[in-house]
Amino acid sequence: MNQNCYAFSYKAGKSFFHKLPSWIKILFIPLFNIAIFSSSWKFAVFFVFAQILLFFCLHFSVKEQVADLTPVLWYGIFLYLINILSDTYLNYAGYGIIKSFVQAIKNCIHDEKTFSTVVKFFACNQSASLMFKTSTSIELREGIEKIELFIRKFLPCKKESKFATVVSMFINFIPAVFKMWAQLKRAWFARGGKQSLKMYLALFPVLFSLGLKYSMDTAKAILIRG
Predict the structure, then answer these.
(1) pLDDT at 1 over 50
(2) For 4, which DSSP code?
(3) 189/138 Cα distance (integer angstroms)
(4) From CA 127, how far away is CA 13, in angstroms rounded?
(5) Alpha carbon distance 181, 173 (integer Å)
(6) Rounded CA gap, 17 and 226, in Å?
(7) How many angstroms separate the Cα of 212 from the Cα of each of 120, 146, 173?
(8) So what's the pLDDT on residue 188?
(9) Which of 8, 30, 77, 179 pairs as cysteine with 132 (C-beta 3.0–4.6 A)?
């Protein structure tokens, strides 16, 4: 598997967004997310397609884009299933299980609120993807440090970027988890395993263990560097 196909993995390039200072991208994402959730779903849909076009211009393949959007896709499916099951349960007494289930599906299809939530998450997820794909882990850490040092200039505290280390560890842990999960799945399929419930039951404990080890090794490295 190509490393760039890991969700939220960095992809080398010379585009404007690659050259843009990471601290600008770090500040942009929260502001963009606030704007998206404060606007209508039509505004979010526009940005979803605009960002897809932008990713193609930056030479990000369909596979790379889908890898980053998969978590939101599963979230959307989960959200719709919860709505269908809850509507079915609420209307079960009056209509029966079959009619209630069919009516619940119809309600979800016409539920603008759920669709609005999902499409807004898609747009926000794409903006985060843009940051991770055009910024290395070192650039993200340096960007956070620059923001923190600027804020500390106006506060009665030490001019040291102590908080930035913790934040950068958390941010860079996200692509690391997706990379570990992709590698576990590769190993599972290489041994003849199939994509099933058994796979998730077997791999999630291993993923949790690898995540803890990664966190401990990273913390030790930071302590050694002082």
Answers:
(1) no
(2) G
(3) 32
(4) 17
(5) 12
(6) 32
(7) 31, 28, 11
(8) 92
(9) 8
